[in-house]
Amino acid sequence: MIKKQRVINRVVQWIITGVVSFFILFPLFWIFISSITPAGELFNTPIDYIPNHPTLDSYTFLIQNVGLIEKVMSTIVIVGITIVLSTIICIMAAYAFSRFNSKALTIAFVFILLSMLIPDVVTARPLYEFMKNTGLYDTYTGLIILYISAVIPFTVIILRGFVGEIPYSLEEAAAIDGATFIQTLFWITMPLLKPAIATVAIINFVTCLNNFFTPLFFSNNIQVLSTAITQLPLRDNMYAVPWDLVSAMGWIIILPIILFVAIFEKQIMDGIMAGGVKA
Predict the structure, then answer these.
(1) Hey, is 153 helix, strand or coil?
(2) How far apart are CA 138 and CA 135, in angstroms?
């Protein structure tokens, strides 16, 4: 009877897993199929779930006419530098907020929390004037600063909780052995934060890739993937939106996220599990 119940439970788990996986993966499959389907066959009836004449014309068009390579390189530079610098800055900030207690630090942490509640559109106008006056408008430096400022609040809050779980005795032992503060931070604390760092890195990576407002409002000549969809040409027919190009651009944006999650899956799951235990 117990064995039969286990089999039933296992079957139910697989059914639920299959249903959930279908709802998650089918949209990704459909985006990819639409990206390699000729524009004239996208609206065939009945629907062709496998294209009869698969083509890479959409990707070729994006490379030749929309400057896809340039946008990819700009995105890599901005997002890559943002992830690295924001992680280092937030680790040090989280360490300070967790290890030191003072009224000034408490006020600073509250301001960081409150900054998450302010919509981007509220600060857009004064921030635009600031960027123009300081010469940071439409520059990589300006965009990176804005991207970093956007991910700092969430990252500091998450890492602060993880740092608080690390025994302070480890740092005292390192100090007794002659380690400096920087050595303790980077050789003792950071390795113990790997799961948390991987978790916030993937979330920040997705956030930066999906950031549409910042590059659209604060840059003109610098183009990234998230704003490339605004440059896609419309077609003169009943289906004015070029869904094949939109799908190709969407797949290009989604693919790095899939690869990033696949590479750091273990660290992400460790971070989620550790966070669940703390909760």
Answers:
(1) helix
(2) 8
The H or E element spanning position 247 is: helix 243-263
d(CA 150, CA 166): 27
* Alpha carbons 62 and 247: distance in angstroms, whole number: 11
Distance linking the first and last C-alpha atoms of the chain: 36
Integer-rounded Cα radius of gyration of the chain: 24
| Residue 24 confidence (pLDDT) | 85
| Amino acid found at 29 | F
3-state secondary structure of 204: helix
Alpha helices in 36-139 (DSSP H): 57-65, 68-99, 103-115, 120-133
Is the four-CA dihedral 213, 216, 222, 228 of positive or negative sign? positive
CATH architecture for residues 67-278: Orthogonal Bundle (1.10)
Contact 126, 243 (CB under 8 A): no
8 A C-beta contact, residue 171 and residue 185: no
Comparing CA positions, the residue from 55, 34, 47, 22 lying closest to residue 249 is 34
Residue 7 is encoded by which pair of tokens? 């089999």
pLDDT in tens, 215-238: 888 988 888 888 877 777 766 554
- Cα 1 to chain center, whole Å? 47
Share of the chain above pLDDT 90, in %: 11
CA distances to 26, 28, 61, 79 from 19, rounded to whole Å, are 10, 15, 36, 34
Distance (Å, whole) CA 172 – CA 184? 9
The answer to whether 217 touches 30, Cβ cutoff 8 Å, is: no
Amino acid identity, position 155: T
